[in-house]
Write a structure and sequence with these properties.
With 175 residues, the chain is an alpha+beta fold. It contains 2 helices and 6 strands; from the N terminus they run ββααββββ. The protein has one domain. The longest helix is centred in the first third of the chain and has 53 residues.
């Protein structure tokens, strides 16, 4: 952009200077500095908002799966699910997460299938290339409470695998 030119002309024996319209380089630099400061503040805030949303999704999904596991176990204890069902372990927990989605035939005169989940939720921090069931870490009733390897007998609990930290400093696998 060419530098603005000042023109002078004489009007009633006084010189009047007219300036061409436009922004100076200093004004442009000040605007750029202000915009870069705003961007530096906004980008981390946006990233934190996305992470907080994923954490809320993780809490909701863990709760949904755990409630389904507890309902399955309660139905097994109350005799709604047969004690010799192929879908339940000896301790009354589902053998895998797909059992909660596929359902179990209830005991009784009617041949009704009870389903506990519509689908296995996607782990917001999981590997998207894995199947939905493999995105979650599972523990069986016989495993230690903090075990990271599944014993394979049944699904007693689920957790988010990995060593990522949450906003509050805790690890997702401890939730």
């Amino acid at each position: 952009m060419p530098k603005p030119m000042l023109r002078a002309f004489q009007s009633n024996k006084r010189f009047v200077f007219l300036k061409a319209d436009g922004f100076t380089l200093v004004e442009m630099l000040v605007v750029m500095a202000i915009l870069s400061i705003l961007a530096a503040v906004t980008v981390p805030y946006a990233e934190m908002t996305v992470k907080r949303g994923k954490e809320l999704d993780l809490h909701r999904d863990l709760r949904e799966i755990r409630i389904a596991i507890d309902r399955f176990h309660s139905d097994w204890q109350n005799g709604v699910i047969s004690k010799i069902s192929n879908s339940a372990s000896e301790d009354g927990y589902p053998k895998n997460l797909n059992v909660l989605v596929n359902g179990v035939v209830q005991t009784g005169a009617r041949n009704v299938k009870q389903k506990y989940l519509r689908h296995i939720p996607e782990n917001p921090f999981g590997d998207v290339e894995k199947s939905l069931e493999d995105q979650w870490g599972v523990r069986s009733y016989a495993d230690e409470p903090d075990a990271t390897e599944w014993g394979g007998q049944d699904v007693w609990d689920v957790y988010c695998p990995g060593d990522e930290k949450a906003i509050d400093g805790t690890f997702y696998h401890d939730w």
